[in-house]
Model the fold of this input.
Amino acid sequence: MVAFAGNFYQDADITWGDGRGKILNNGQILTLSLDSTSGSGFQSKNQYLFGKIDMQIKLVPGNSAGTVTAYYLRSEGSSWDEIDFEFLGNLSGDPYIVHTNVYTQGKGDREQQFYLWFDPTADFHTYSFLWNPAHVVFYVDGRPIREFKNLESVGIPYPKNQPMRLYSSLWNGDDWATRGGLVKTDWTQAPFTASFRNFGANGCVWTNGVSSCTSNSSANAWLSEQLDSTNQKRLKRVQKNFMIYNYCTDIKRFPQGLPLECTVRAKS
Done:
């Protein structure tokens, strides 16, 4: 009932990049590269309807301004669901920005951004999604940084009906990624390379309309996992100290009123 991934040959397909994506070390490492001609990307072989997904990533080192390393879950079709990590490159010495977003039924505009409290280019760090019927939680090294709750009871769509595949890509986003597009990609630094390892998917594999999770067994405890009081405090601490943008406080962007989930959360 549970799918554990561990070898990129078995668990992922490099989907674009003309050889710029590579699986190395007998399937233990995957690298994506970007140059002035093209970026690259891969996707998981499986689709999931709920899951706890982990990946260790070492981001592009040095002057990575303009580059975007994306790591996300997405369903198919024009009314898609999506859960995003995007890592926005920087000038050497400046902090990376982690850009997060949640799409439901093709609608996003739910951005939150954070600085990381470590150098994500010096070593691998673990970036995770918990996606179950109650909420979506984003984690960095096991520490929650963002929660998107299921608030269907007040009319807010929640991603629960469309299976999603894991995707990752490295691409040039210098029209917006670094300081709103003011800092462009320095192609003399190319190729830019990000590395991935230890992809783990503890999830409900979706095959031909059937989920592999047939019951809430102990193996699927994550399906009902909530944030305990310790992790709620960690979440608040990260948001207080490292969040640099929150759509739920951007009154200028939403002059007609903040999105409903922002006001509901403020009251709860």
